[in-house]
Amino acid sequence: MNRILCLCATLFIANLFTPLQAQKKGAASITTHDLKTHMMFLASDELQGRNTGEPGLEVAARYLAVQADRVGLKPAPAGSGFMQPYVIREKNMDSAHSFSSIQRSGNDPVINTDPFYMLSEMDGEKVSIEGEVVFAGYGITDEENGYNDLENLDIRGKVVLIMSRAPMNEEGTSFQFGERKWGGMMSYRNKLKYINAQNPKAVLMVFDPKSGIETIGDISPGYADYLSKSMSLKEPGAGDSPEGRSPVNMLIHRSLADQLLAASGMSLKELQQEIDRNLKPRSFLLEGTSLKMELKMNIDDLEVFNIFGLIEGSDPVLKDEVVIYVAHYDHMGTDGHGAVFNGADDNASGTVALIEIAEAFLTEKKPPKRSIGILWVSAEEIGLFGSSYFADHPLVPESHIVTVINLDMIGRTKSADDVASTREGLTIVGGDTVKVIGALQSKVLMEINKSTLDQAGLVGNYNYNDPEHPERYFYRSDHINFARKDIPVLFYSTGTHNDYHAITDEESKIDYDKYLRMTRFCFQAGYNVARYKGAIEVDNPMSGW
């Protein structure tokens, strides 16, 4: 009897730990050398920043397809090889035929040709708006602080002019209201959410004078070039509607704002000083003033690619379920002056990790119960278009996708530069910490996530795992297109740092010790989901939020 009990105990322990041993074998196949080899190529100057629609992105796509074949991934039966093509419609601003015209009673029109940029999607080749103008200060509606720039102001059908940021002291550094909500570059989202609901014809945002910025080009010519383009996902057979959407949201030059306000006898700077001094709104209709804006765009259709491969699961039933890893491989191109946005961390780090994770799964003698999908998507930086297309046109049945694990910026740890940085909204974590977003739809997935973090000796940072967080990180990467379809998601990152979206995001700044740990951890997380015996239940679907 003792011998039988001993044998049973031995078999139980073997059963318990065999998956972990397999996991260790797969994780051990992920090496710093291999991570660096792929990183050196994908984040090199030769790929010119992997911008959507440019040759460097297609080179990266074909490199990934070759790697998918090399490691042993299988193309999806519904696809045609590893590359899934789709079309991006690109519209470039025709500055020679774009202008603003201010009309005042009894005066000749004042023409302004300084650049302005669309902040909202547009249909067709041309946007034309015309109407009365309302100045609405900072455009803030803040019940908690008893401040409302739009109080008793009728903006329906009008053009609304607002400044960036919020009331501040004379130095322009201390915000009187919540800095987190109103202080950053993303604050216009909070403002437009309320303003657009009042059905204005258009909303014009201008940098406040205390910022010292007259136009987006003062910050970066690259940002100006980026905003001078409008890109959208073109569905097969779809065309443009002839009319622009309403309301239209635009970013304008300070010169246009001052020309609009001239008839009031006050400049934008003087109005800002008055609001900041009294902490009271100073909003009004610009009587007798109307604005006409014409924006002309040149149109081109670009073919781009997602890359997808499969590893079949080992369980005869559960292999129909698929755990998909996703990472975007595109970035921001060049600055137009010879400098390259290499995007080493954003997101060559996630891209390369998927090569190594795929190889780790295929190192095992036996795959986990569920199938594994490896998905590299393009056009994330311009609107999450690649993941949107795949989510709407999946190469495996949508109902079979049980979890999506998104890797975006996993190659850095907090540095002295990050600590000293004055950039707003940095989320970079250090040491043993991982930024975790997701698993809100499934308690089972959250438990697997937490147990895997413990297994790897890592700590989850959930500070940004809130759909209502002002910076909206829950919505800002590719996982969101799957979450919206009630597929449970996990998004792993080490966070945004001082080199985020800068030409200094280079391979030399990757922290390979943290990067290796992150890649192995992400492999373990997917492995644990794929081998889980029970159902990955969705008990809190996003559609019900």
What does this protein look like?
This protein is an alpha/beta fold. The protein folds into two domains: 284 residues, 3-Layer(aba) Sandwich (Aminopeptidase), CATH 3.40.630; 208 residues, Glucose Oxidase, domain 1 (3-Layer(bba) Sandwich), CATH 3.50.30. It is 30% helix and 22% strand. The strands form two sheets. The chain has a 16-stranded mixed beta sheet that branches. A two-stranded antiparallel ribbon has the order 6-7. Helix 12 crosses helix 14. The longest helix has 27 residues. The chain is elongated, with a radius of gyration of 26 Å. The N terminus is likely disordered.
Features:
545 residues, alpha/beta, Aminopeptidase, Glucose Oxidase, domain 1, 2 domains, 16-stranded mixed sheet, two-stranded antiparallel sheet, 18 strands, elongated
Explain the layout of strands and helices.
Blueprint: H1 2-28, H2 32-42, H3 55-71, E1 83-93, E2 99-104, E3 110-112, E4 117-118, E5 126-135, E6 141-142, E7 147-148, E8 159-163, H4 179-182, H5 187-195, E9 202-206, H6 221-227, E10 229-234, E11 248-251, H7 254-261, H8 268-278, E12 284-311, E13 322-328, H9 344-363, E14 371-377, H10 385-392, E15 401-407, H11 416-420, E16 433-438, H12 443-456, E17 459-461, H13 480-483, E18 489-493, H14 512-531
Parallel strand pairs: 5-8, 8-9, 9-11, 13-14, 13-15, 15-18, 16-17
Antiparallel strand pairs: 1-10, 1-12, 2-3, 2-12, 4-11, 5-12, 6-7, 12-14, 16-18
Helix pairs in contact: 1-9, 1-14, 2-9, 3-9, 9-14, 12-14
Write a brief structural summary:
With 545 residues, the chain is an alpha/beta fold. The protein folds into 2 domains: 284 residues, 3-Layer(aba) Sandwich (Aminopeptidase); 208 residues, Glucose Oxidase, domain 1 (3-Layer(bba) Sandwich), CATH 3.50.30. Helices cover 30% and strands 22% of the residues.
